Amino acid sequence: xxxxxxxxxxxxASGDSAGQEAAELPICGIIRPIAAMVDGYTESHWLDxxxxxxxxxKDADFHLRLVSEGGTGIIVADIIDRIYNDALVICDVxxxxxxxxxxxxxxxxxxxxxxxxxxxxxPFSFDITPIRHLEYxxxxxxxxxxxxxxxLSAAIRDTMEASKSEKYRxxxxxxxxxxxxxxxxxxxxxxxxxxxxxxLRRSVSNISSQIDSSRxxxxxxxxxxxxxxxxxxxxxxxxxxxxxIIKFRVDCGANKSREIQSYIKSYSIDYxxxxxxxxxxxxxxxxxxxxxxxxxxGSVASELHKALFKIDPTVEVYF
Length: 319
Hints:
This protein is of the alpha/beta class. The protein is built from ten helices and nine strands. It has helices at 16-24, 43-59, 75-85, 98-109, 144-163, 190-216, 223-227, 234-239, 257-266, 300-311, and strands spanning 27-31, 63-66, 88-92, 114-119, 133-136, 245-253, 268-277, 282-291, 316-318. The strands form two sheets. It has a five-stranded parallel β-sheet, sandwiched between helices. A four-stranded antiparallel β-sheet has the order 7-8-6-9. Helix 4 links the parallel strand 3 and strand 4.
């Protein structure tokens, strides 16, 4: 089959008169892959399919337009606007392209008429089987594609006519009465976003600290222990404390104790300390520290291990 560029947006083969005719027809959007994909799909293959669908749309008195084509504003906004406003959308799910499936999901959510097409090498997707599918040969051989074009043209007419009826049920309505709530525009304070990101950062940092601690041997729990009745996960105890407060124990040389305390103080907002004697020449420093997020950027446990090891190569840190 000879590949031709899709004749949409007034670029019809017959020139200006064809373009004027296309402009007077209602728009039928098409959602489809536009680039080469795995499994042998080429860009020219999608153009060939597009031109066949365009002919079917024209036979049904519609002008086919790629929803991602042209536009004068933000690309994503233009695509969403067309997915919502186009009278009908045809979606080619061949190859199960992620962008195509996402845009199909939007169209379905908008409760607007849609026809799904696919090639005969693409399996049906369970969630969208209630929506009408038309299948075509992947090799696009004639005369099967002539038959497909005729069937698609009829499906366009039937779908548009059915959508005008009060009894017409969109995809979501097949599962019961559904009311689509109108979205409201709300102003968002940038500081709220910053605060939310900081909270997320604290949570991720705390999880990393707990994982690092477990890997280093400070909080190892056997699978058998986890299965015992009354067992409490170390993570649950960890999250019971404020998100940027951490408890840990440092086993260090007695001669390095003050230097370690000075380091901890420099990275904390506040801390409490109790000291115990350990083996000869060693101390156990028990810290409960509220740390400064602006200084402790990565994993708290990892940073403490690295910093304290530089002060005392014999140090052991337990969380």
